[in-house]
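Researcher: Quick test of sequence recovery. Tokens follow.
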């Protein structure tokens, strides 16, 4: 034990340590909240962009079908071909 421990009450030292830990914990929580808020904002942005992209695609396909460039059946057949090209029929494709 150092002279410092004898000079001061251990309970005071423990209380100070606890307060430091509480402060660090609160800072960590604040940082986590800020990161979470940033991630939520980014998620919302991406969700909006996905909605916009879906609207553009739906508009293009609708125009092409109305102009009889291809039929809905042809579109679905080609979409299925592209879907299984990656080895898994899951309604998605790799970018």
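Model:
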């Amino acid at each position: 034990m150092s002279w410092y421990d004898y000079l001061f009450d251990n309970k005071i030292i423990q209380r100070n340590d606890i307060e430091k830990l509480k402060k660090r914990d609160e800072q960590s929580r604040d940082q986590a909240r800020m990161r979470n808020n940033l991630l939520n904002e980014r998620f919302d942005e991406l969700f909006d962009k996905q909605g916009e992209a879906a609207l553009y695609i739906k508009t293009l396909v609708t125009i092409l079908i109305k102009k009889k460039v291809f039929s809905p059946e042809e579109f679905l057949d080609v979409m299925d071909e592209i879907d299984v090209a990656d080895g898994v029929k899951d309604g998605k494709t790799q970018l």
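The helical segments are 3-7, 10-66, 72-84.
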